[in-house]
Batch of 2 targets.
Target 1
Amino acid sequence: MIQKNAASGTSTAAPPARPRTAPAGTHTERKAEPHRLFPTKNDLPAATRTRVAELLNARLADCIDLQTQCKQAHWNVKGPNFIALHKLFDDINEDVEEYVDLLAERVVQLGGSAEGTARMVADRTTLDEYPGVADGEDHVDALSSALAAFGKVTRKAIDQVEELEDADTVDILTEISRGVDKWLWFVEAHQQ
Ligand SMILES: [Fe+2]
């Protein structure tokens, strides 16, 4: 087993790939990292593509977090509505997985790098942690809160990207927002 040097955090002499603007491992440091673009013949200005890719990576972290929460609900739900909720939560997961792909692949189309590892997501997500609940009603409450939170930041991203004049990303975000609103309706209908 190869042991890394825990004190220095490095195992090679390679220079840091990106300049550090804050102490290593902090939220600020990760968010402050500049995003380098790969060359592309896409005619959107590089400044636009950089900013949109940053925004999309932020929402990608939220979306991957949301997807794991759908599965968490799918696996752990109990109670008289078990089968209906178990299936519903998996249907939502399938759509959210598609949203994850849409966000990540748009980043790459713009010349950016999709940043969706578990560690990146844990560091960046704006969603609250999923609660340790079992009862169907509690899962309905928890997952509707997560869907609503993601819907809110996605709607905000639509406005932000509209200002940056990237109509295609606006279209992708609108599609996602529309889907999230639909699933929020499906989940909330269980408590209305
Ligand atoms: Fe399953």
Target 2
Amino acid sequence: MSPFAIEKGLAGIGGSPKSVKKLRSGDLLLETNSAIQTKSFLLAKSFLNNPVTVTLHRTLNSCRGVISDNELMKSTEEEILEGLSSQGVTAVKRIFMKKGTTLIATKHVILTFNTTKLPSTVKAGYIYCKTRLYIPNPIRCFKCQRFGHSKTACRGRQTCCKCASVDHLTSDCQSAELLCANCKQPHSSDSKDCPQWKKEKKIQEVRTKQNLSYYEAKKLLFPEQNSMSYSNALKSSISQPSQTDERLTKVIVPPLIKLKPVQPNVLRVKNVSTTKTSTESPSTNSAAQSKIKKHSQNAKQAKASDQWELVKEKKQKAAKLAFWQNGGHITISVPLPFSYKRGLS
Ligand SMILES: [Zn+2]
Ligand SMILES: [Zn+2]
Ligand SMILES: [Zn+2]
């Protein structure tokens, strides 16, 4: 159809959209100006006398962020979703790390928001969690080893991940030499050192940061490259490959910090304690303090510490008074069998 006819047809449905792009698949990607305009287009059943289907774009109307907090380790994805849904969160996915054959839960949780702008924090219960932009890893097909589509959409040839041979499965590989199916260098196709992987990762970064489609980001980064370098599988595939179903378990995460059981004598167990001044002072950790004292052989130091105790006492008294007069911060400590590293602060 002529672009003039298309433009007229679109204006006839819901007025001129903010932008119109033709995708590789032949579909039109519209950016609308208002919710009313969106609705008009969504209700459309035909376009220039042809039947059409209009759907919301799967990824361009939302954004994803990561929060990382030990306090949320015990919360299920369902609980987090319920707790954050009023802040625009529509999906929650915890990142798991693969160790051998077992999956280990990490403190990193991916949140999907129903907006295109990532909020800087979310409030999970009483905790404020900082959000970081989530940049998904590139999708690599487990069948043909190429990037940009998944195994289920693959029309390529079965290729060994280790030696790039098309004669056997990766699990049956006997080859001693590694060969990447994408760049032909001596590493396996799933290597993070692969220049092709790095390139794809960069595309994901630009795509996420600028809220672009995969092909827009690719064109922006590598304008000189044509589609020849992509697999035949992709070329023959009619639909635009989706970038949304990344393998969550393959996401690189910082190494896990092993949680150490806390020695009972270091645990600060108080019921309800005092004011801001006293909680901020590092020397109020009485158990640690007495421990330091016991080991101190220096008399001078002990004297200084006595003086400090006096000053501290005075300060605490003054602060207590101010607290009863003005109100302030209180600490609530609950004795626990163990605690997270951060929980002790
Ligand atoms: Zn494939
Ligand atoms: Zn092989
Ligand atoms: Zn490679």
